[in-house]
C-alpha cells in the first residue's frame, strides 16, 4: 500500500485491521490492504494505540496529539466517541494495570509528565462516552451548520425572486443566477511540455455556456503538497475554462475531487459544482510511435489465458490515450514514453495469449503486471524476465555485501585483540604504580591512551561499514521484492522464498536464475 507521507506509527486492532499515523497529521485504519477511513489534522499524531474504551468488544483507535488532545475513534467509521485534553503535547499512550487492582486502564502521559488513566466504560455508558464539553462542541457545530443552511436558503429565495421579476442578466449575475442547463466538464490529456514547462498531465475544467469559472479547488492524494490545490485566476484572465497541470510522482490511480465556483464576471455569489474524476494509474506515459523509439533490452514475458480484447480494455482504462485502442489482430503493439525520464515502454500482445512488456524500469514492469492481474482477476501468474542493467548493478551490490562482511569480521578480530592488550597494559600500569615506578606507569598509560584512540577510530570505521552494509542489504531485499512483484500469487511467494534461500547459501548464480525464470532448476 502506498501512503502520501512517512508512516510514523502502526497499531494492530481487531482481526485484520490496523491503525496508522503519518507525519503530516493523518491517522486512519486499514483492513488488510483496503483503507477503511482516514482523517487529517493540522496537529501531529504523537502516539496511537488500540483499546476497547466503550466495552463493545471491539478496540477503538486512541490517538495522542501534539496539541495535548487525546481522542478515541471508532475502528469502523472514524467517528470520535471520546476525547480529553492535556496542557501539553502527548508523549505516549499505553495500557496496563496502573493501580494494581486487576483491571486494565488506558494510560496517557504528556511531555510535562502528567499521567491520566481511563477505565473502559461500563454497560450503562456503552456508546455514550462523550463528555459534556464534547457534546457542547457538537451542539456548536450543528448550530454553525444550521446558520449556513439558513444563509443558503435565503440566497435561494433571493434568486427565486430575481427570476420572478425577470431582472436583467447583469443583476442576475450579481446574485449568482446561472442558466439551469449549466454543466461542468472535465478532460484529461498528456501535455508534452515546452521550454518553460516540463511534461505533465493536463486537467481541463470548462463550462458548457458563457459562464466563467471564478476558482477551482482540487483535493488529491499524493499529487499536491498538503493534498489540495487552488486555482484562482485574476479578474483579467477569467474565462469558462481552467487548465491545471498535474505531475503524479508515483504510478497509482488517484481520485481528483474537484470543486468549482461558477458564475458571471460581475457575480458576487457563485454556484459550487462538485465532481470526482479518476486519474488513470499510468497517466504519466505518452503514446508514441514504435518506429521512432528504440525498444529497451529489458523485458517481461508471460502467457495469459485471456481474450486480447480484455487486455486492450485494461490498456484503455490505465493509460491516457488520445482515442481508445482497438484490437484488430495479433501481433498488437503499443509504445509509450515516460513524461518523467523519457524512458520507453513497449507492450505487445502476440498470438496464443503471450504478452511482452519491454522497459528498463523494473518497478514499472511490476506495477503493470500487478495492475493487469488485478483487472483480469488473475490469481497466479509466472513470468520470464530479464533486466540486464539492473541485474548488473545488483551483482555489484552483492560483491559490496561480501566485502563489508569480511571487513566487519576483520575489525571485530582487531577489536578483540586490542581489548586483550588493554587488559594486560592496565595490569602493568597498576603494578608499576604500586611499586612506585612512576616512569613505567606513565609510559604504560600513554600507550593505553593511544590504544584507546585507535579503538575509537576503529569503532567509527566499523559503524560506517555497518551502515553501508545495511544500505546494501536493503537494496538486495528491495531487488527480491521487485522480482516478486513481477509475478502474482503462489509464483510470487515462491520466488521471494527461493531468492532468500539463495542469498542464505551465498549462491548468486541461482539467485539471478530465480529472478529471471522464477525457479532454481534448469
UniProtKB/TrEMBL annotation:
Ranges where the Ciliary BBSome complex subunit 2 middle region domain occurs: 1-73
Primary location group: other
Keywords: Cell projection, Cilium, Coiled coil, Cytoplasm, Cytoskeleton
Subcellular localization, as worded in the UniProt entry: Cell projection, Cilium; Cytoplasm, Cytoskeleton
Domain BBS2 C-terminal helix bundle residue range list: 490-516
InterPro entries hit by this protein: Bardet-Biedl_syndrome_2_prot (IPR016616), BBS2_CtH_dom (IPR055381), BBS2_GAE_dom (IPR029333), BBS2_hp_dom (IPR055380), BBS2_Mid (IPR029429), BBS2_pf_dom (IPR055379), WD40_repeat_dom_sf (IPR036322)
Domain BBS2 GAE stretches: 196-282
GO terms (BP aspect): adult behavior; artery smooth muscle contraction; brain morphogenesis; cartilage development; cerebral cortex development; fat cell differentiation; gene expression; Golgi to plasma membrane protein transport
Domain of life: Eukaryota
GO cellular component: BBSome; ciliary basal body; ciliary membrane; microvillus; motile cilium; stereocilium
Stretches of the chain forming a coiled coil according to its record: 139-166
Domain BBS2 platform: residue ranges: 285-376
Single GO term (MF): RNA polymerase II-specific DNA-binding transcription factor binding
Record-annotated BBS2 hairpin domain positions: 388-485
Name of protein: Bardet-Biedl syndrome 2
The organism of origin for this protein: Anas platyrhynchos platyrhynchos (Northern mallard)
Gene name as annotated: BBS2
Amino acid at each position: 500500500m502506498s501512503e502520501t507521507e512517512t508512516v510514523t506509527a502502526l497499531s494492530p486492532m481487531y482481526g485484520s485491521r490496523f491503525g496508522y499515523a503519518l507525519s503530516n497529521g493523518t491517522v486512519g485504519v486499514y483492513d488488510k490492504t483496503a483503507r477503511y477511513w482516514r482523517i487529517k489534522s493540522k496537529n501531529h499524531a504523537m502516539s496511537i494505540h488500540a483499546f476497547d474504551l466503550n466495552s463493545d468488544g471491539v478496540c477503538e483507535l486512541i490517538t495522542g496529539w501534539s496539541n495535548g488532545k487525546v481522542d478515541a475513534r471508532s475502528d469502523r467509521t472514524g467517528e470520535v466517541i471520546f476525547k480529553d485534553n492535556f496542557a501539553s503535547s502527548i508523549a505516549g499512550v499505553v495500557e496496563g494495570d496502573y493501580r494494581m487492582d486487576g483491571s486494565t486502564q488506558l494510560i496517557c502521559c504528556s511531555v510535562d509528565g502528567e499521567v491520566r488513566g481511563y477505565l473502559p466504560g461500563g454497560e450503562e455508558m456503552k456508546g455514550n462516552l462523550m463528555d459534556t464539553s464534547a457534546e457542547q462542541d457538537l451542539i456548536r457545530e450543528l448550530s454553525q451548520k444550521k446558520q449556513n443552511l439558513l444563509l443558503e436558503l435565503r440566497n435561494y429565495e433571493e434568486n427565486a425572486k430575481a427570476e420572478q421579476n425577470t431582472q436583467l442578466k447583469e443583476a442576475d449575475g450579481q446574485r449568482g443566477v446561472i442558466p439551469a442547463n449549466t454543466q461542468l466538464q472535465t478532460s484529461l490529456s498528456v501535455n508534452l511540455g515546452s521550454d518553460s514547462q516540463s511534461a505533465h498531465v493536463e486537467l481541463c475544467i470548462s463550462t458548457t455556456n458563457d459562464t466563467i469559472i471564478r476558482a477551482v479547488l482540487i483535493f488529491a492524494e499524493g499529487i499536491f503538497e498538503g493534498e489540495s490545490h487552488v486555482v484562482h485566476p485574476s479578474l483579467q484572465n477569467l474565462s469558462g475554462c481552467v487548465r491545471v497541470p498535474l505531475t503524479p510522482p508515483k504510478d497509482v490511480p488517484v481520485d481528483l475531487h474537484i470543486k468549482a465556483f461558477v458564475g458571471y464576471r460581475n457575480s458576487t455569489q457563485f454556484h459550487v459544482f462538485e465532481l470526482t474524476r479518476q486519474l488513470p494509474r499510468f497517466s504519466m506515459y505518452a503514446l508514441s510511435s514504435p518506429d521512432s523509439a528504440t525498444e529497451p533490452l529489458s523485458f517481461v514475458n508471460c502467457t495469459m489465458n485471456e481474450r486480447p480484447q480484455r487486455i486492450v480494455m485494461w490498456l484503455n482504462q490505465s493509460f491516457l490515450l488520445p482515442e481508445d485502442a482497438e484490437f484488430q489482430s495479433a501481433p498488437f503493439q503499443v509504445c509509450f514514453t515516460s513524461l518523467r525520464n523519457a524512458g520507453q515502454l513497449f507492450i505487445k500482445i502476440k498470438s496464443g495469449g503471450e504478452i511482452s512488456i519491454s522497459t528498463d524500469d523494473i518497478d514499472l514492469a511490476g506495477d503493470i503486471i500487478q495492475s493487469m492481474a488485478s483487472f483480469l482477476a488473475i490469481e497466479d501468474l509466472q513470468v520470464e524476465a530479464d533486466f540486464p542493467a539492473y541485474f548488473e548493478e545488483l551483482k555489484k551490490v552483492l560483491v559490496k555485501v561480501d566485502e563489508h562482511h569480511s571487513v566487519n569480521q576483520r575489525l571485530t578480530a582487531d577489536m578483540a585483540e586490542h581489548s586483550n592488550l588493554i587488559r594486560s597494559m592496565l595490569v602493568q600500569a597498576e603494578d608499576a604504580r604500586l611499586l612506585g615506578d612512576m616512569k613505567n606507569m606513565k609510559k604504560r598509560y600513554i600507550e593505553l591512551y593511544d590504544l584507546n584512540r585507535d579503538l575509537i577510530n576503529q569503532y567509527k570505521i566499523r559503524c560506517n561499514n555497518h551502515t553501508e552494509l545495511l544500505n546494501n542489504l536493503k537494496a538486495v531485499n528491495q531487488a527480491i521484492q521487485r522480482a516478486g512483484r513481477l509475478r502474482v500469487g503462489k509464483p510470487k511467494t515462491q520466488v521471494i522464498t527461493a531468492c532468500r534461500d539463495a542469498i542464505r547459501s551465498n549462491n548468486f548464480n541461482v539467485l539471478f536464475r530465480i529472478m529471471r525464470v522464477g525457479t532454481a532448476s534448469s
